[in-house]
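User: Design a sequence. Structure:
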C-alpha cells in the first residue's frame, strides 16, 4: 500500500511512494495538490528550497489533519547556499517555511564541486542534533559518492537521481545497493514524456492499467523509491493505484531493455547552476 516503507540504513522507515512538487506553484496549486495527495493516502512529499513552495507544502500538512509523525517530508539545500556557505541558514529557513520542527530527509540537491563535502559536514551535525531523521544526496554519480564517503562520518541514506525506463542507471543502482544507499527516482515519468511510448502502452493495455501506472510499478518492483508529480487530483489518485497488480518477469525485461542512457535533466558531472 501507499504506507509501505523501505528501511534506510539508520533504521528510519521511508515510504516507497510519494508526491513530487517540482514546478508546482506556491499558493493554491501547491496547497491543493499536497492536500489531495494526503487525502488519497500519500504519506511522503518531496519538495526543495528551489521549488519555492515550502510555505504551501507546510500549510497543506497542517490542514491535512494527519499527525506529523505519520508523514515523511523531504526538502533539499540549493546550490547557491552551498556556494555561499549558508547551508545551516538555508536549513533553518526551510524549517520555518514548512512550519516544522524537523524534516524526515534533507538532501544535498546537486554535487556542487569543491563544496559538497563541507555541506555534508553541516548535514551530519544537524542529523546528530536530531533536527533531521535522515540525510542524503541528490544527483550524485558513483564518483561523487566515493569522494564524499572518503571523508564522511555518516554515509548518505538516500541518493535521489533522474531515473526512468530510458535512463535506468543500472551501475549506480548496483553501487548504491552494495553501500546500503536507497535509490530514489526523480522524473520517474520522464516529466510526462514517456507516457506515449509504444512498448509501455502495450504492457499497460495488457494489465488494464495506464502507462504511468506501469512505469511506477516498475520502480517498486525494482526497489526504487518513486515520487511522481501531478497537480490534477484524478492523476494523483491514478498514480498511486499501483498496489493491485504485478508486472510479469517478461514485462520487466521489456522495460529494462528500453534503456538508452537518455537524460532529460542536467548531467551531474557537468552542470552550471
Ligand atoms: P515526473 O516524471 O514526475 O512527471 C510529471 C509530469 O508528468 C506532470 O507534470 C504531468 O505533466 C505528467 N503526469 C503525471 N502523472 C500523469 C498521469 N497519470 N497521466 C498523464 N500525465 C501525467 O517529473 P518531475 O516532476 O520532474 O519529477 C518528480 C519529482 O521529482 C519532482 O516533482 C521533484 O519533487 C523531484 N525532482 C527532483 C530533482 C532533483 O534534482 N533532485 C529534479 C527534478 C525533479
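Assistant: Done.
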Amino acid at each position: 500500500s501507499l504506507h509501505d516503507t523501505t528501511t534506510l540504513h539508520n533504521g528510519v522507515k521511508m515510504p516507497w511512494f510519494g508526491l513530487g512538487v517540482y514546478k508546482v506553484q506556491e499558493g493554491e496549486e501547491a496547497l491543493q495538490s499536497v492536500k489531495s495527495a494526503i487525502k488519497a493516502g500519500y504519506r511522503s512529499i518531496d519538495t526543495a528550497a528551489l521549488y519555492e513552495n515550502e510555505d504551501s507544502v507546510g500549510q497543506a500538512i497542517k490542514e491535512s489533519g494527519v499527525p506529523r509523525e505519520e508523514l515523511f517530508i523531504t526538502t533539499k539545500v540549493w546550490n547557491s547556499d552551498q556556494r555561499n556557505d549558508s547551508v545551516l541558514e538555508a536549513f533553518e529557513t526551510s524549517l520555518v517555511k514548512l512550519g516544522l520542527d524537523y524534516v524526515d530527509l534533507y538532501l544535498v540537491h546537486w554535487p556542487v564541486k569543491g563544496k559538497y563535502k563541507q555541506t555534508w559536514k553541516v548535514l551530519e551535525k544537524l542529523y546528530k542534533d536530531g533536527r533531521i531523521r535522515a540525510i542524503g544526496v541528490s544527483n550524485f554519480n558513483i564518483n561523487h559518492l566515493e569522494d564524499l564517503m572518503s571523508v564522511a562520518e555518516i554515509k548518505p541514506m538516500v541518493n535521489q537521481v533522474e531515473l526512468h525506463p530510458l535512463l535506468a542507471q543500472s551501475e549506480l543502482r548496483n553501487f548504491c545497493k552494495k553501500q546500503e544507499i536507497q535509490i530514489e527516482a526523480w522524473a520517474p515519468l520522464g516529466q510526462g514524456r514517456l507516457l506515449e511510448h509504444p512498448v509501455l502502452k502495450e504492457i499497460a493495455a495488457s494489465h488494464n492499467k495506464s502507462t504511468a501506472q506501469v512505469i511506477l510499478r516498475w520502480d517498486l518492483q525494482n526497489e526504487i523509491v518513486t515520487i511522481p508529480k501531478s497537480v490534477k487530483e484524478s492523476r494523483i489518485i491514478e498514480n498511486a493505484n499501483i498496489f493491485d497488480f504485478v508486472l510479469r518477469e517478461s514485462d520487466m525485461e521489456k522495460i529494462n531493455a528500453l534503456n538508452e542512457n537518455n537524460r532529460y535533466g542536467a548531467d551531474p558531472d557537468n552542470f552550471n547552476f
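The first helix runs from residue 28 to 39. The mean pLDDT is 98.
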